[in-house]
Design a protein that fits this description.
8-stranded mixed sheet; 12 strands; Rossmann fold; 4-stranded antiparallel sheet; alpha/beta
């Protein structure tokens, strides 16, 4: 699903549905109809409010959540559903995750050296002890920490430093895709930019591909090449970052943008956030699907709305 057909697709979601048993007869659909591609070397952001299903999708890619429908392809091979042990290990090796809470994702009783080496041990990705230590030292240096830090414990570090350790632990595996689940939301505002800059730097140096999960559009504008907006388990808009900010079309995307704080206090005081509520028709209407309104810009809508969105995009462009 993109105008950029000449790019290599690394990961594909095709009509993905994820349901959970809520204890009653009817299952709760956390995600439905999710379809998108992630290209090699790009940062693809998945943005939505808490409970929208974005982390659920990230966990499904990591093979933690099972699909109730659809499939996930990695380098053209299906990775959802049952896999052999060898295939499962390949997925774990090539897709790594950076977690939201750096304190909870690191073993407090283990040294930084062990935390970073865990993947190396599990997959035996080192020739000998000296080789392993060299890799750990290099990983620490790449994320702006020192080799002597490896003998310390996670509680001896700040939140930003712990997240750097989490990034080093993921990247030492040399993955092809990194799923970053709200990687800066638990950090102080003052160090968020440092972590984002680090992620961008490592992406460019190593040719990484990111799925960046977030709830804040102003953050993803800084790091993402393309953005998918998700609402109540349904992806409602996909576009390149600057395109989405210049021509937001779906009412939910517009409401999210209206909630982004403005640096000017006078303008901020005069603004009123736009509240969006999804209609039953949008959930169940047979004519609703992702439609390309502008090149590479897709919106979940029916044919009549697609025409309105095209007119709206033209008027914004002319204005």
């Amino acid at each position: 699903m993109s105008a950029m057909t000449n790019r290599d697709v690394l990961l594909s979601l095709k009509d993905v549905e994820i349901s959970f048993d809520n204890g009653g007869r009817k299952k709760f659909k956390a995600v439905q109809g999710a379809t998108f591609d992630i290209y090699k070397g790009e940062t693809f952001a998945l943005v939505g409010e808490s409970g929208s299903g974005k982390t659920t999708i990230g966990r499904a890619i990591m093979r933690i959540n099972e699909l109730s429908n659809g499939e996930i392809l990695f380098e053209g091979k299906r990775i959802s559903g049952k896999l052999s042990k060898q295939e499962d290990m390949e997925v774990i090796r090539n897709i790594q995750m950076i977690f939201q809470d750096p304190a909870a994702s690191l073993n407090e009783r283990a040294t930084i050296e062990y935390c970073i080496s865990e993947g190396l041990y599990n997959f035996h990705l080192y020739q000998n002890e000296q080789d392993r230590l060299v890799k750990v030292d290099r990983a620490l240096e790449e994320v702006g920490l020192l080799p002597e830090h490896k003998s310390r414990y996670p509680h001896e570090f700040s939140g930003g430093q712990r997240q750097r350790v989490g990034i080093a632990r993921a990247l030492i595996m040399e993955p092809k895709l990194v799923v970053a689940d709200e990687p800066i939301s638990a950090l102080d505002v003052s160090i968020r930019a440092q972590v984002l800059n680090l992620m961008n730097k490592l992406k460019n140096e190593k040719g990484l591909t990111y799925l960046f999960i977030a709830h804040d559009l102003s953050v993803v504008r800084f790091i993402a090449d393309r953005i998918a907006v998700i609402h109540l388990g349904r992806i409602v808009e996909i576009a390149e970052t600057e395109e989405l900010f210049a021509y937001p079309l779906h009412p939910y995307t517009i409401s999210l943008l209206s909630a982004v704080p403005m640096p000017d206090p006078v303008i901020e005081k005069q603004r009123e956030p736009i509240v969006y509520s999804e209609t039953t028709e949008e959930k169940t209407g047979p004519d609703y699907e992702m439609r390309e309104i502008r090149p590479g810009h897709f919106v979940y809508c029916n044919p009549e709305q697609a025409m309105e969105y095209q007119k709206a995009a033209e008027s914004i462009k002319e204005g």
